[in-house]
Amino acid sequence: MDRVPEVQTRALGSSVALTLGGCPVCGCERRLRVTERNHLSVVRCPQCGQRYVWPVPSPEMLARIYDRSYYQGAEGSLGFKDYAGLAPARHRMFARHLDQIERLVPRGRVLDVGCATGDFLAVARTRGWEALGVDPSPAREQALAAGIAMVGQTIHDAQVEPGSVELVTFWDVLEHVQNPVADLRRARELLSPQGIVAITVPDSGSAVARLSGNRWFGYKTAGEHLQFFSAATLRKTFGAAGLELMVQRPVAWSCTLGFLVDRAGLYLGPPGRALNRLASRTGLGGLIVDVPQVNQFAIGRRTERWASNVAA
Ligand SMILES: [Zn+2]
Hints:
- This protein has 312 residues and is α/β, with parallel strands linked by helices.
- The protein is built from 11 helices and 11 strands.
- The chain has helices at 6-12, 59-65, 87-101, 119-126, 140-145, 180-190, 207-212, 231-240, 257-268, 270-282, 303-311, and strands at 32-37, 40-44, 51-54, 109-113, 130-134, 149-152, 165-171, 191-202, 227-228, 243-256, 288-302.
- Helix 5 links the parallel strand 5 (130-134) and strand 6.
- The structure holds zinc ion.
């Protein structure tokens, strides 16, 4: 069950970059080994508890993960076999996220970081938001074709006036980045005074993750995922970026039955593959499923606004 699929091992190779520096959340330079996956080590910070990939994979290795096959035709536990097939599921999930966001901030400009094919921005636009996106992957071509204003590749090179954005979103993105605190700090800089940051990340502190210990299936994503956030370490990450959490809760992740049984085939071996055949025979593969509690949803605002409200 722990065997990494052959194609994935070949694709990743074993080159890693030796990057100096400490825990991406608290800076602590001590680390405890958790497990090895995909020729990479997952470590835990003894000070704040953040788990992260160490050393950080080389740019070449990361480029191999995010090549054209990431969103279409990927095999194994990294990337997507059919990202476009999940679009209806994503639309439903993004509408739910926006329902919550629109209670907290007036509609204005939204910057979606790692917007991929632009699905979230397409939903936001129909609800009256001015949609801006950044993404470094080839998926950005599709966002451009859909008429989304692409303003850069990452939040750091985004051509956006500081203080001009009501909403910055990172949907399943912060777990992919090397320095989530720096990304959130930059998001904070772009926010208008009433602006908010909304994110989802996988919940690495879930009951399943805790019970499975270092055998947790989430570690199979090492390389693609560089950070494994618990509720506590996510809160610390926001705090380190000068953001105060207004909302933090477990949230469902929407996908299709076909996607789920495909992953089951990967993680569960023969019983999973039998499920997979059943789903394709019954034609239920396209059914949208909300998988409860796999993600954390969080909304943050600038800490000093809170402080000035208290003073007033
Ligand atoms: Zn730490």
